[in-house]
């Protein structure tokens, strides 16, 4: 079977790998669709991010949907041919944080396609994937492309949970890549009254409006437009910071109401912060990292038609041209979410 393997920056290969057989509690899955994520792009464009560096070849990918092909011993509730969304979150279940109900902080997390630990955790961009049944969520009724959006959607649902009460809140989203765009859907679903979204790309901002943003601002073209929200008593209760760029966060902080909540989702490495403003406004700066139960929640919301991710999916390319998906996904002027069709 073929797998998409990163060897170093810009060295992406489609290689043959042996197929595994499903053990107890596992299933053999035929991959349907894989979405290219920002972290995949970091490996592809730079060989890693921050202190995380590729030290050996690694199969990329963690946003996948698949059809069930074979069912291992002890698995119930799945049938061959069924479409499933596969969660890349594989906590150990036994460590301190797993037992405390914080599986995204698992000390032995084996998240697909991650070079954080060594040996690296191999990803899911393989034609055939053996996964634990507990990672699989029935995605009947969704397209394979939608089902492959469950992972980034879960990231934003988890962030929304970290935000606390959302009903009637005024929300700012800085950075409208896939995570910012999905944050618009998640915040609206949770009851946000007003959502303003910023980016430097008119292409992504057009999608943000389609997803329900009340107003979008191109901070490159109209840098003063955001500052208007800092007048008087300020505006926003909640900020989804999805750029990881210090300047974007610094520009957003004056627009926040006292005791507003900043959700830091963007992974930009170290950022310099206006701590004085955070202190005097009593802002809550909250990190948000990955997810766990929100994966199945997101699939359910999509199945019920309560969240529609289809406007995000801008390109789908066949496996043989997978590198095109990485090149496209790196171009924010024409791609939101590029996906690879495995079958
Ligand atoms: Zn992702
Ligand atoms: Zn654990």
Describe the structure in your own words:
The chain has helices spanning 38-46, 96-99, 144-147, 150-163, 178-189, 202-210, 223-227, 246-252, 275-280, 294-303, 322-329, and strands at residues 2-8, 11-16, 26-35, 48-49, 52-53, 58-59, 63-71, 83-86, 128-132, 136-138, 170-174, 194-199, 215-218, 236-241, 256-264, 284-287, 313-318, 337-341. The chain has two domains: 2-149 and 309-341, Quinone Oxidoreductase, Chain A, domain 1 (Alpha-Beta Complex), CATH 3.90.180; 156-287, Rossmann fold (3-Layer(aba) Sandwich). The protein has eleven helices and 18 strands. It is globular, with a radius of gyration of 20 Å. By secondary structure, the protein is of the alpha/beta class. The strands form four sheets. Strands 3, 7, 8, 9, 10, 17 and 18 form a seven-stranded mixed β-sheet that branches. It has a six-stranded parallel β-sheet with strand order 13-12-11-14-15-16, with helices on both faces. A three-stranded antiparallel β-sheet has the order 2-1-6, with helices on one face.
